[in-house]
């Protein structure tokens, strides 16, 4: 099922790269050091473009612009309906540039162009519109004090926000973070992932065209330990929203604690279980399980990387899974027939292959896949291990690739215990027709999202966030807006009592 044997790049549609500089205070500028870095096409390993490499001093400039825009600029002071109008225009501009934005994420991240065009990019415009719709509905409560006081809460924008973005969904993650912050009236500095800087700069350009005032949205491309760390340590950033690995999340939280105790929210990935019960439709369940791990080449934090199948249908599910994995089409992500593109970069590619070696060495059975594909580029076969134990690295760690760990279980109690036996708690899936089983399992699993008879069902109104080491603080939904708002209590005597 692979298109990948030989020359993988079937159709080269590299768009002209228009934006390669930092976006600070409404202008595209070089980095202060003048340094640049290469961004690579994972289909080939070739350089796409050189991008301005921002560092601590560029972050500082961007924070100054954001601070000024927050303290003195119009954005936080506009009526919510006015911010909404500008955000709607921003969304329209995204719709008008869907193909180009999708193509940028395809060459930068290896994502499927068909998916970007039909789903991911239209969806980010929808995210902007969702939060635009909330921008004029931000209000507090009237409180009942025990004495003769009138009290109410105000929800005020939290201030200057730092957004640190991962590379797996460059557009989705960016808009998931900036849209609610814009609606709240915050100003912000964005640090895109160094692997995927292209689309973020394009969105900055569209934001300016839409009329977002200078300094409100700044984008500083560069590396994590320099530009990223400068965001988390900055004394004048009020909140940092991070999505990425637990290792870096820990550093961000530590840096926040050691600098100005800025508000932190972390979304740190997972090792999400999918539990398939005996009463499931075998074919549909096998498809759900495969898609759950190979979708976006496994580079998705909620991937169903641990699959537990009840013993009655285990053998049938295994058979179907192997058939489906072998038929899954890996190749050039611009090709509409292809279902899985290359991993984002050489480092991730090698990391995934190392985990596959661990799996073999630890004694799990390799059912299918396990090898790289193609002469160049970072393609990996859909890979399934069975007979895993929760102590094995392939079952404990987030691999972030198309590698499934599959196991058999007997009872619902066993399934719940094994599913919860993880330091992560981001998502979980349940496949059953039995409502009692579905209810019991969804209440027993400590994870932020539970999908029953579906997987990857996201919507703007549905918050996503983690339990345990998957982090804290949700994105999307109104929860995702509230994290960019401070609650202030205002109290006054009802009668003008003389003190
Ligand atoms: P990965 O290891 O899979 O690339 P990371 O968690 O390292 O994922 O990356 C997520 C984001 O965090 C990227 O934008 C990256 O540049 C940034 N980052 C990496 N290291 C740091 C750091 N020390 N401080 C702040 N941000 C960082």
Summed up, what is this model?
The protein is built from 15 helices and 24 strands. It has helices at 56-71, 80-96, 98-109, 113-134, 170-184, 198-210, 224-233, 246-258, 282-294, 314-327, 346-361, 393-396, 412-420, 435-444, 477-482, and strands at 22-24, 27-29, 36-41, 46-52, 142-144, 149-157, 160-164, 187-191, 217-219, 239-243, 263-267, 273-276, 306-310, 365-368, 372-373, 379-380, 383-386, 403-409, 424-425, 427-431, 449-452, 467-468, 471-472, 485-493. The strands form seven sheets. Strands 14-17-18-13-12-20-21 form a seven-stranded mixed sheet, with helices on both faces.
Give the DSSP E fraction (strand runs of 2 or more residues): 15-25%
Bound molecules: adenosine-5'-diphosphate
How many strand elements?
24
Strand order of the largest sheet: 14-17-18-13-12-20-21
The average pLDDT is: 96
Strand pairing plus helix content: what structural class?
alpha/beta
Largest sheet: 7 strands, mixed
**Spatial separation of the terminal alpha carbons:** 82 Å
Query: What overall geometry do the principal axes of the alpha carbons give?
Result: globular
Q: List the total number of helices.
A: 15
Low-confidence stretches: 1-6
Q: Roughly how many Å is the radius of gyration?
A: 24 Å
**What fraction, in percent, of the residue positions are helical?**
25-40%
């Amino acid at each position: 099922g692979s298109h990948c044997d030989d020359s993988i790049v079937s159709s080269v549609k590299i768009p002209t790269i228009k934006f390669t500089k930092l976006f600070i205070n409404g202008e595209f500028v070089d980095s202060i050091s003048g340094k640049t870095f290469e961004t690579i096409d994972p289909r080939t390993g070739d350089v796409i473009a050189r991008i301005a490499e921002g560092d601590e001093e560029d972050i500082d400039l961007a924070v100054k612009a954001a601070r000024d825009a927050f303290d003195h600029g119009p954005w936080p002071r506009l009526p919510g309906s006015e911010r909404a109008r500008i955000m709607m225009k921003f969304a329209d501009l995204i719709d008008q540039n869907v193909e180009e934005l999708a193509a940028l994420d395809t060459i930068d991240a290896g994502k499927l162009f068909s998916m970007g065009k039909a789903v991911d990019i239209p969806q980010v415009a929808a995210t902007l519109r969702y939060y635009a719709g909330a921008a004029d509905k931000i209000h507090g409560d009237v409180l009942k004090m025990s004495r003769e006081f009138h009290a109410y809460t105000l929800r005020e924008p939290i201030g200057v926000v730092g957004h640190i973005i991962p590379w797996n969904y460059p557009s989705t993650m960016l808009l998931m973070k900036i849209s609610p912050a814009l609606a709240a009236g915050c100003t912000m500095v964005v640090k895109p992932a160094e692997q995927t800087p292209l689309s973020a700069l394009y969105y900055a350009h569209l934001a300016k065209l839409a009329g977002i005032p200078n300094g409100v949205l700044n984008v500083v491309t560069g590396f994590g330990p320099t530009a990223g760390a400068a965001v988390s340590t900055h004394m004048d950033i009020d909140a940092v929203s991070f999505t990425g690995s637990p290792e870096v999340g820990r550093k961000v939280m530590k840096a926040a604690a050691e600098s100005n105790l800025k508000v932190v929210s972390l979304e740190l990935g997972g090792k999400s279980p999918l539990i398939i019960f005996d009463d499931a439709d075998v074919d549909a369940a096998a498809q759900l399980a495969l898609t759950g791990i190979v979708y976006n080449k496994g580079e998705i934090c909620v991937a169903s990387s641990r699959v537990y199948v009840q013993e009655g249908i285990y053998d049938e599910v295994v058979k179907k899974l192997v058939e489906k994995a072998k038929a899954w089409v890996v190749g050039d992500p611009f090709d509409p027939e292809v279902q899985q593109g290359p991993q984002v970069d050489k480092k991730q590619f090698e990391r995934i292959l190392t985990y596959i070696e661990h799996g073999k060495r630890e004694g799990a059975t390799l059912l299918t896949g396990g090898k790289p594909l193609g002469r160049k580029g970072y393609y990996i076969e859909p890979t399934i291990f069975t007979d895993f134990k929760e102590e094995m690295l392939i079952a404990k760690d987030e691999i972030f690739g198309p590698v499934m760990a599959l196991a058999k279980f007997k009872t619902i109690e066993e399934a719940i215990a094994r599913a919860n036996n993880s330091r992560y708690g981001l998502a979980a899936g349940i496949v059953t027709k039995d409502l009692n089983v579905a209810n019991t399992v969804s209440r027993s699993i400590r994870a932020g999202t539970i999908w029953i008879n579906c997987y990857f069902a996201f919507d703007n109104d549905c918050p996503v966030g983690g339990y345990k080491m998957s982090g804290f603080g949700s994105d999307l939904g109104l929860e995702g807006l509230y994290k960019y708002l401070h609650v202030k209590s205002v109290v006054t005597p009802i009668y003008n009592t003389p003190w």
